[in-house]
Amino acid sequence: MQEAFQNRERLYFLPVGGTAMATLAGLLAASGHAVSGVDSALYPPMSTLLDELAIPVRLGFDPAAVPRNIDRVIIGNAVGRDNPEVQEILRRGVPYLAQAEAVAHYLLAEGREAMVVAGTHGKTTTASLLAWIMETCGTDPTALVGGLLSWSRRSFRLGRGRWMIIEGDEYNTAFFDRGPKFLHYRPRIFLLGPVEYDHADIFPSEHAVLTAFRAGTAQVPRQGRIVVNGWSGRALAAVRDATAPTLVVGPDSAHDLSVRGIAGGPGGMSATLRWEGREHHLQLPLWGTHNVGNGAMALAAALASGVAMEPALQALSTFPGVRRRLEIVGQNRGITIVDDFAHHPTALAATVDASRHRWPGRRLVLAYEPRSLTAGRALFQEAYARALAGADVVLVAPVYHRERLGDDVLDRAALARDLERQGALVLLPDPGDDPAQMLTTALRDGDVVVVCSSGDFGGLPRRLLAALG
Question: What's the CATH code of the domain at 409?
């Protein structure tokens, strides 16, 4: 591919430590640009990634320390207009772009075509599955995903092929652009996974969420393709008025890629697929019914791009996985410690389902931190009771943003009563309590402990493993 940006630019990331920003920083550094950044604090795995890539990072926002010799600032959605360095950038008149704008400006402008993976659940896994298929099948893609790829320990891939796989976040772009990030990506192929009401801090209603996804599908040209999750009624509703051809993946025999006979066990999941009148066997080294849907969505997108069926299926059968998706941290005393990113009732239910497939017959202990501005809301009170009831022992940490939610906050005591009525043992640490110590006293040999959070939960998986030792 001919590179449009031959000139090496000096780029300053404000802030640099989030998943999307650190990933783009790494990708642009690999493209030859001089990248540096700032943040208030750094945490693994992105702190480790930035260190390995030798990207200079300064801690602490200081307008006097903003470099003078920068060509452009990349601004993330974690800072507001009142950030002191943002104010300094605006005062100086330094050119700037939002993170999503920078993806289009520096990467899509080089002639790549975008395969955008959107939806409220499963984006990272589906994007990673698609990247693995496209890489294994020789298309040499570029990829930007929201998790570390197990085969490279990177959250990005710089290729010279036609396609760029982008995890399309529906969250707002920046303080100066409140629309979803994926509206900047000009998709040729748009994958729309399950759609639910999420991000209550920016979407006032389910209708607002559907409107955002409808805007995304409206960008796909008639020569492109929309791949939609047929298990999700809201996803189907979001593509109803799209003008691009739609490829439905789902359980119905009338769906374009029909998925039947789903089964699972300790070795992974399997299913029978029907595509263009022929049956095929899907074998996937992941667990949970939802991951069959993720794999089938990635497969459909690869087929739409021109990849052949059998090589794509072979690639799926060897998928190495994604970090923090049922990732085993370690084992001690016969107890398995697992790290997972689930932070929404639907995702937690999927994690419980996947854990039961992967570790049948073992006692399941689930520790959950309601960390995001959506996760801690009373909105999901009943949904959490349904999702977490599948575990034998449940620890629910204090709501992370309790002071910002006012009266609209999850009632942990009521949730505990609901779960106990359904037979679960419930642990409710108070602020200041150590959940690792509380869990250690409740564990038995042979337990599987799944720690779920959209953040680092105070390093709980590794601290718990150390406590067991």
Answer: 3.90.190.20
| pLDDT of the residue at 173 | 92
**pLDDT tens digits, 117-132:** 999 888 999 999 999 9
**pLDDT (tens digit per residue) in 340-378:** 988 788 889 989 988 998 899 899 999 999 887 777 788
Strand partners, 393: 365, 425
Q: What DSSP state is assigned to residue 322?
A: B
CB atoms within 10 A of CB 28: 24
Given the structure tokens 């005591």, which residue do they identify? 413
The DSSP code sequence of 124-180 is HHHHHHHHHHHHHTT---EEEEEEEETTTTEEEE---SSEEEEE---SEEETTEEEE
Cβ neighbours for 439, distance < 8 A, ≥ 6 positions apart: 365, 367, 395, 427, 449, 464
CA distance 294 to 145: 14
- Do 138 and 94 sit in the same domain of this protein? no
Using the Cα atoms of residue 249, residue 251, residue 255 and residue 257 in order, give the sign of their dihedral.
positive
Q: How many CA atoms lie within 13 A of 125 on its CB side?
A: 30
* Domain identity same for 384 and 265: no
How does 37-76 read in b/e, with b if 16+ C-beta sit within 10 Å?
bbbeebeebbbebbeeeebebeeebeeeebeeebebbbbb
HEC per residue, 361-413: CCCEEEEECCCCCCCCCHHHHHHHHHHHCCCCEEEECCCCCHHHHCCCCCCHH
Domain membership of residue 462 as a residue range: 327-468
Helices then strands, counting H and E runs in the chain, come out as: 15, 23
Last residue of a domain, one of 61, 79, 101: 101
Same domain, 331 and 226: no
Domain final residue pick, 53, 73, 101: 101
Interacting residues of 285 by C-beta distance below 8 A, sequence separation 6+: 267, 268, 317, 318, 319, 321
**pLDDT digit string, tens, across residues 82-139:** 999 999 999 999 999 999 999 999 999 878 999 999 998 889 999 999 999 999 999 9
d(CA 399, CA 369): 7
Q: How far apart are CA 170 and CA 196, in angstroms?
A: 12
Residues 223 and 182 in one domain: yes
The answer as to whether 106 is a domain residue is no
Taking CA atoms, 222 is separated from 183, 218, 286, 321, in Å, by 17, 10, 34, 33
The CATH number of residue 90's host domain is 3.40.50.720
Question: Contact 103/151 with Cβ under 8 angstroms?
Answer: no
Using DSSP's 3-state secondary structure scheme, residue 277 falls into: coil
> What is the tens place of the pLDDT at every residue in 254-273?
999 999 999 988 889 999 99
